[in-house]
Design a protein that fits this description.
383 residues, alpha/beta, Rossmann fold, 2 domains, six-stranded parallel β-sheet, 14 helices, 40% helix
Length: 383
């Protein structure tokens, strides 16, 4: 039985990474013949949002990295250094206790700490962000330098697991070993599908610069002028614009309804007739196959790099040339004005979504783990 140690930040929010990770750990316990340990750094007393299999060995290291934000300037840098030293110390203790055969880290910020204490245990960095995400975000120059340093450190990992082929090509410019494994997606299991007849459109995503809800509002402003009887339902989550965007959206009116994150998002998909995505970049785009599995057509910008790996243009949705708002509006209105097209694309999307079932994705992880415990990977690999 293979022993795996996963290292994550927290499982306390309704996030895509959190959903994927829990589904994977549960599958490895139930079907993968694995012994699984999970360490979090910042869970504290917060409950898990998604149910974790009781046979997963779990421990929170209690680092609370957010403490550094109580300080500024040099004091913040010193506090962060202290917290990472504590992280390394407690991580070392748990590695010695569990004696894992493979360590899987899902957070770039923890890579240096893990590499420093892991010894000869193979490390897999499970990338849930685009390699070039730092070029799109509004980070400080100091944060960009930190990210580049961590990318450099990843050369010492035994494997980087990337979500898409194009993103893997970017990683290969920085690290020697890359494997492409798409996300496991928690798909619709209700046995019901949307009939695409409601005058309701759904958006699901964080209030963040990446998700670009401000462009969504520009698009909806034009759509609303042509179809004022349709409504847009925004299910927003945590993000760098969560303090400003919800109130801005509510003030705009235009049949836009703001909702809090929900654990019953599939019920919301089933009440809708299409899903919109306006991201500036996407390492994958979990909400696309989620919504497709409920029978929804989708409209997304063809941004780097996720949507094009999932959506087949004019078959199960529309891929819009980058930031072309007018074209985006036309595609949305085309779906609004053609219920048969919505239903045809929605039916095609149900089939597309099945590519991301756990039983299709997780054997790829098992094969990778087996290769890492038997021999070193080839010098350069995309698979």
């Amino acid at each position: 039985m293979m022993r795996l140690l996963y290292i994550e930040n927290t499982l306390a929010i309704h996030g895509g990474i959190e959903r994927v990770l829990v589904d994977k750990l549960n599958w490895l316990i139930e079907y993968g013949n694995c012994e699984v340990c999970l360490l979090t750094a910042n869970q504290a007393d917060h409950p898990f949002v998604f149910p974790l299999h009781p046979q997963v060995t779990y421990h929170d290291l209690g680092i609370q990295f957010h403490q550094k934000y109580r300080y500024s300037g040099w004091k913040r840098i010193c506090k962060e250094f202290q917290l990472h030293k504590l992280f390394q110390q407690r991580l070392t203790e748990r590695i010695q206790e569990y004696s894992p055969q493979i360590i899987i880290c899902t957070r770039l910020d923890y890579v240096y700490d893990v590499i420093k204490v892991k010894g000869n245990i193979p490390l897999v960095f499970e990338s849930h962000d685009s390699c070039l995400a730092y070029r799109f975000e509004r980070d400080t120059w100091l944060r960009r330098m930190q990210i580049l340093f961590l990318h450099w450190q990843l050369r010492r990992a035994q494997m980087v697991a990337s979500l898409t082929q194009n993103d893997a090509k970017e990683w290969l410019k920085r690290v020697p070993h890359v494997q492409v494994i798409p996300n496991v997606v928690h798909l619709n299991e209700t046995g019901r599908y949307s009939d695409c007849c409601s005058k309701s459109v759904i958006f699901v995503g964080r209030y963040s610069y990446q998700k670009d809800i401000r462009t969504l509002l520009k698009i909806w402003e034009q759509v609303h002028q042509r179809h004022p009887d349709w409504s847009l339902h925004v299910f927003g989550g945590y993000g760098d614009e969560q303090e400003t965007l919800p109130s801005l959206i509510q003030r705009m009116g235009m049949n836009i309804v703001v909702h809090k994150p929900t654990s019953t998002i599939f019920e919301e998909y089933l009440r809708s007739s299409m899903l919109l995505m306006t991201s500036r970049y996407e390492p994958f785009g979990l909400v696309l196959p989620e919504a497709m599995s409920c029978g929804l057509p989708v409209v997304a910008f063809d941004c780097p790099y996720g949507p094009a790996d999932i959506v087949t243009h004019e078959i199960d949705g529309f891929l819009v040339p980058e930031r072309d708002v007018d074209r985006y509006v036309e595609y949305v209105c085309q779906l609004i004005e053609n219920p048969e097209l919505r239903q045809t694309m929605g039916a095609a999307g149900i089939k597309t979504s099945q590519r991301y079932q756990a039983d299709r994705i997780m054997p790829q992880w098992k094969k990778m783990f087996a290769s890492l415990t038997s021999k070193e990977p080839s010098s350069k690999k995309i698979g």
